[in-house]
Amino acid sequence: MATWLLLPSGAGALLVPLLLAWCVSGPAAAKPSDTCNRHRKILTAPWGIITDGNDSYRNDSHCEWLIRANSSKLYITLRFHEMATECAYDHVFVYDGDSYSSPLLGTFSGESIPPPVIATSGSMLILLYSDTNYVLKGFVAEYSITQCPSNCSNHGSCGRDSCVCDLAWTGPDCSTPVCPSSCHADQGQGNCSFPCTTTSPPGSSEIPNCCRCSHGFAGISCSLPENPNDSAAGWHLLSRGGGPFAARAGHAGVYLPFTDQLFVFGGRAFGRVLGDFLVYNFNESAWHDLTDVRPRPAARWGHAMAPYAHTIALHGGELTNGSLSSELWLYNVAKRDWTLELPSPAGHYPPAVALHSLTPGDGNHLYVFGGRTAGGVFSDALYRVNPRNGTQWERVAYVGSVPPSVGHAAVFHAESRSLLVHGGVVVDYARFSKLSSALWAFHVDANRWTRLQRTPLGGEAPTERAFHAAALVGGYMVLFGGYMHKHSFEEKCFDDGIYLYHLRCHKWVSFKLIAGDLLVPRLWSTLMPATWASVLYSSNGWTVSSV
Question: What is the pTM of this model?
Fold first, then answer.
């Protein structure tokens, strides 16, 4: 999956088997005139259209399509043209094979058009599943069976079941330019050096990138300048993914300005819990695998990471066996080693949680708030620990109340000496859960919770959300993304918006209006900064194509 960076306008601005008979299609798959309902079809034509019907699909139902080529060496490409299902409840599953035990290629939900999906086994199984709730229009997709992926996208030739790409193109289907935007060579930002190869081992999914960036520029097309200006405003693609950095969600990452590197640990992908430790080097615009460092934390997802002094702190998460971890690990960048920080017997036992927040505070303390505990219970507990002073954990006895929460975003505002917590999935009445848009401040000296900005102002405030990211940019708290679906109101699963909260005026303000005025050196948190200027990094995460 890709790693993106957003650079706003303004110089220096930083910033997801029933036993029924199969129906075999004719020479081409025609669009049905009625809505499918627990139907199964086998499609053998070299091209066709797949859809649930002209009207909305039915609730509490499912439909299946099996695309079967006449050889296991042929490729099947599925391209979606329309997509509208109840977010997070009704899904389209796509498998590389003819059964549910085949590799899962993607799980799609919501109203965003999924990317093309390619099966390499000669068969592709597609399942539309709906629950008992309301329904939407469904989907329309086009499939094709070819000897090579996507017929090499007209940028290469097909030989022995694989593409031989033209000189300027790469990838399994020759759809990716080896030098995107010519590496901005006309602006002196880089040069195209091909043919080039990847440093990953044979069989890797990494797509070679032949751009060699000039000093002070980064990204797959050398588009990101160290000293940004208005012409550089917008998102910059830093990595296509693949290679060491496989598609994932539920991972955690930290950017360290003194090394100019982004570190990522763990996550999960299609049911697998990952334990790899990866670093993105901005000077090389490349990922490197640090997993061989031992000892190291066990594989996990839903954990939290934060910068701490000149180290990286990692806490909690769900392990491969489903248990929750209470471990606190520190990674020493200079020594390239992990240390398990055993809790002092004089303090509290550290919490075993996942989907919580870990936030560096006043330079000494790390704060752990909320998360999911054993049995799926949401927590409202707040802990702090000073690893420099014997790793003695303290459960903070605070004044005021804050709802138990998972998937919230948190930052520490030094000027007000407050831990700011936004959104998340919170406990409602009768132990039901709901998304939240509340912003809370924990004052570390008074040990008091206060709710900020109860009334959203205009359209500038973010709606309820969880699993988003937050960072500090000058006098603003910046939010990005998150899960935001509201039944029968907003069918958008995930948000791509940027929202700013003015920390002195205590109100939400327009990102477009003030982006050019944000002149600050750096930011931190899940949205990670660079020393180049103030920039926001988005590395993978929960997407409409769930992993």
Answer: 0.86
